[in-house]
Amino acid sequence: MRRRHFLAGILLAATPATAQSPAAVPGAPATLNDDLKVRFVAQAHDDLVASKLVGLSIRNSANETVGSVADVVFDDKRGIKSYVVSVGGFLGLNAKYVAVAPDTLQLNRKDGGTLDAVIETDRDQLRAAPEYVYLGSEPSKK
Fold first, then answer.
1. Which residues pair with residue 115 across a beta bridge?
2. CB of 108 closer than 8 Å to CB of 141
């Protein structure tokens, strides 16, 4: 009998009270002194997303594919400093990376919104350009 009353007491304690529910309390700020000022931004139709740039084929005015966008380099003010272009190679193997100024790569949207990248050069000029070497991955000097 005691066991039955004990189990009934546990069940009553675990059942939420429906007669009185507390009023909703607004959430507290993320910091105690309320200095966090997060701004949220919605994507606009004409925004350019970096993830759509990486891997994008680049062609020249003769409609030849001369490379692809491998990376985007930002300066200390978070503006685009250069586009890293992958030239040559096959499926990313033995590719050479060169950095081109942002004003040399024309980015446009084609019908349907897909991106189009055009550069006024040919594959040979890109292959002859100085190689872009990521800091920390320079070849060791012996």
1. 109
2. no
